Amino acid sequence: MYSVIQTAKDFGVDVQWAVARRKEYLNQKIGELKNEQSQVLQAFSGNNELNRFLLLDSMRILDKEIKKYESDLNFKNSRNDNRITQNDIERAKQFSLENLLQNIRNGKAHCVSGNHMDKHPSMSIKNNFAYCYSCGWHGDVIDVYMKINSVGFVTAVKTLKPL
Ligand SMILES: [Zn+2]
């Protein structure tokens, strides 16, 4: 579906129209396949061992095909969503660790690695970089954000916008 949108843009064709055409086609295909499934079901039903085998096999293949069309139909324009630039990364790195970790005292904070208890803060914060003297975990503000929020790199970069 992404390529449909991109192609429509490249050709200067109305994107909504192009997507509607594609969806129409996919829905038609899904309808045909489901129809085929019910026909197969009728043809091979019964107690015969071979029939049961053929039935299951056909159902499996048809299910797979239907899923393929359905996933295309419920597309997410994920490639666009996940696009981050080097600029975004550089900007995210400007976000201050002081604003991310609330309890920094004398340049020390509780370790975020989750590897150990950290009763006496052993993670040193310097130049917007964190280093734990207990377990050795270290990272920049993006790494710290990923760790404390259990999110991936792209989400972290998108979320971290300097105040
Ligand atoms: Zn640590």
For the structure shown, list the relevant keywords.
163 residues, alpha+beta, DNA Primase, Chain A, 2 domains, 4-stranded antiparallel beta sheet, 8 helices, 8% strand, binds zinc ion
Secondary-structure blueprint of this entry?
Layout (H helix, E strand, L loop, with lengths): L1 H10 L3 H30 L4 H25 L4 H4 L4 H8 L3 H4 L7 E2 L13 E4 L2 E4 L5 E3 H9 L3 H7 L4
Antiparallel strand pairs: 1-2, 2-3, 3-4
Helix pairs in contact: 1-2, 2-3, 5-8, 7-8
The site of zinc ion has 9 residues, from loops.
Give a verbal description of the structure.
With 163 residues, the chain is α+β, with helices and mostly antiparallel strands. It has 2 domains: 2-81, no CATH class; 86-159, DNA Primase, Chain A (Alpha-Beta Complex), CATH 3.90.580. The chain contains 8 helices and 4 strands, in the order ααααααββββαα. Strands 1-2-3-4 form a 4-stranded antiparallel sheet. The model has no long low-confidence stretch (mean pLDDT 86). The protein binds zinc ion.
Q: How many helices in DSSP terms?
A: 8
Average pLDDT metric: 86
Major sheet attributes: 4 strands, antiparallel
How many DSSP-defined strands? 4
Helix amount: 55-70%
Round the Cα radius of gyration to an integer and report it. 27 Å
* Through-space gap between termini: 37 Å
Bound molecules: zinc ion
Strand residue content: 5-15%
What is the H/E string?
HHHHHHEEEEHH
Low-confidence stretches: none
Strands ordered across the widest β-sheet: 1-2-3-4
In short:
The protein is an alpha+beta fold. It is built from 8 helices and 4 strands, in the order H-H-H-H-H-H-E-E-E-E-H-H.
